[in-house]
Amino acid sequence: MSNILVIAEHRRNELRPVTFELIGAANGLKQNADDKVLVAVIGSQADSFVSALSVNGVDEVVVVKGPSADFDPDVFETSVSALIASNNPSVVLLPHSVDSLGYASTLA
Fold this sequence. Notes:
Helix content is 36%, strand content 22%. The protein has helices at residues 18-29, 50-53, 73-87, 98-101, 104-107; strands spanning 3-7, 10-11, 14-15, 36-42, 60-64, 91-93. The strands form two sheets. A four-stranded parallel sheet has the order 5-4-1-6, sandwiched between helices. Strands 2-3 form a two-stranded antiparallel ribbon. Strand 4, helix 2 (50-53) and strand 5 form a beta-alpha-beta unit.
């Protein structure tokens, strides 16, 4: 069994469409029935996205409370790093967006 970790992106209290594209890509990466897709949402209002992220193909939504509802690259880098350490995913999918460009290189 392996985990595939998707990092949700939201702005102005709305999920960005790229999040659902990543969920679809994650499901395409599953190699067997035991593989799990975890979607992490980060921010002070992360709880408000759980029901919208609980779609077909998502095995677990992980909420990471942050200090702000707005994007902060340092918070995302620290949070995603901790998620990787605790969930040991085989793949991590980040949006190709201006937000993820702010933390992906230092995370890698």
